[in-house]
Amino acid sequence: MVCGHGSRDVEAVREFEAVARGLRERMPQYDVDYGFLEFATPIIRTGLDALRALGNDRILAVPGMLFAAGHAKNDIPSVLNTYQAGAKDVEINYGRELGVDIKMIRAAGERIEQALDGLEDDISRSETLLVVVGRGASDPDANGNVAKVTRMLWEGLGFGWAATAYSGVTFPLVEPALEHVARLGYKRVVVFPYFLFTGVLVKRIYSYTDLVAERHPDIEFIKAPYLNDHPLVLDSFADRVDEILNGANLMNCQMCKYRDQVLGFEAEVGLPQESHHHHVEGVGTGDDHSQDTHSHAHDHTHDHAHSHSHDQGHGHHPYPHADHPLGPESMKKTPLPGD
């Protein structure tokens, strides 16, 4: 059972479905299904129902996410635990996120190389700067993992310099990060969204890259493709399933802000494990939930603590640096075409 976040972007949902199909092909010994926390169908419960209906009495659930922040640590486990409480005939085992993984780093490296293939090679790697853009979370552990990925790609591919930016919730956001690196004197800047799938955020990352590129015509800005269903990504998902079975399923709790006092997030130790997405399950895409029939304005334009524009009392613990000048409210301060 592959558990995703969900998106109002139909293309993103289709790409997630492609990953589920890829896993089905790699692991034919298992029935494979998928579902989303919010803003897309099927929801996670529907996928679990389908697997039970096939006669399965054990379900191996993996988060379809790069890093373990609130969705992987709290929201998905809450949905699974709630389902498990009402389904005594099935055992649900939860796996870990993709994380900082050698295969994932190789997949990222190949996407970056793909963007550089065919370019005029009068600009060397040492004259090229890499910007890795992560999703951004109110969990410093997940944000720190993006920075580690940046370092491993920088060192592995031999770029002259590298920087990390985020699409929201934390800092620096894409536009200020790109403006900063544009002053460092590099001839080429490669912008790589470290995202599994497309969606509003990836499209905005590319839009802001174009915006900053217009201001700095002396610098060549290259937009690298995101991870998508790269074969090594699918291999990594299969590895997470195997980890559940062989007993090496290790969620990183040493740096978890819900378990220990992480600098700046001390007040969040011991928060209850609960999903913040039950009221928007299935809203957004799908035949029964057209994007045109709902007014839920959750396009991941985060207002500090991942707040949602809903009437319900939905929210996350306040992010301690919500007023940081380089973020973290959103990537929407500068109007973009189509916004």
Say how many strands there are. 8
Which CATH first-tier class of the largest domain would you pick?
A: Alpha Beta
Number of domains: 2
Helical amount among residues, as a percent range? 25-40%
Q: How big is the Rg?
A: 20 Å
Assess the beta-strand content as a share of residues: 5-15%
Q: Which fold name fills CATH's third level, the topology of the largest domain?
A: Rossmann fold
Largest sheet: 4 strands, parallel
Biggest sheet: strands side by side, in what order? 2-1-3-4
Q: Write the CATH architecture name of the largest domain.
A: 3-Layer(aba) Sandwich
Shape: globular
Q: What is the residue-averaged pLDDT?
A: 84
Head-to-tail CA distance between termini: 35 Å
By secondary-structure content and strand pairing, the structural class works out as alpha/beta
Helix and strand pattern:
EHEHEHEHEHEHEHEH
Unreliable residue runs: 288-314
Verbal overview:
It is a single chain. With 339 residues, this protein is α/β, with parallel strands linked by helices. It folds into 2 domains: 2-99 and 232-280, Rossmann fold; 102-223, 3-Layer(aba) Sandwich (Rossmann fold). The protein has helices at residues 10-26, 44-53, 70-85, 102-116, 140-157, 174-181, 200-215, 231-246; strands spanning 2-4, 34-36, 58-63, 91-94, 128-134, 161-166, 188-193, 220-223. A 4-stranded parallel β-sheet has the order 2-1-3-4, with helices on both faces. Helix 7 (200-215) links the parallel strand 7 (188-193) and strand 8. Residues 288-314 have low confidence and may be disordered.
